[in-house]
Design brief:
It contains 5 helices and no strands. By secondary structure, it is an all-alpha fold. The chain has 2 domains: 63 residues, no CATH class; 47 residues. The longest helix has 37 residues. It is flat and about 70 Å long.
Length: 119
Amino acid sequence: MLVFATATLSIASAAPSWSGADPWLNALSCFPHVCSLQVFPGLVIFGCGFVGLAFAGFLFWSVSKISLDATEEDEKLVESTKESDEELKVIYETIRQGAKSFLWAEYQFCLVFVVCFGV
């Protein structure tokens, strides 16, 4: 690990540093090893990856706190009747047909787009 850090710092000091009128790069000029062409993109890539993994961990933690155990009150709410089952089947079929027609229309638009811009 120490060898990698030493090699990275020596490469960073040998590489040309960023310069110009960009205020962001000028703000980073106090860290010349960070602004090198080899190190800065790696920091951005791994930094974004770390932020993404931390956010995914937070979402996993927040979802895992939700309890899936049913109580007696929940079971009373879920009691079904023959009429409600039939009504649910009708609603299901209506949603399924609407989704299929939407996807067919979307595929047609995509096909026209791909043919026009792919040629």
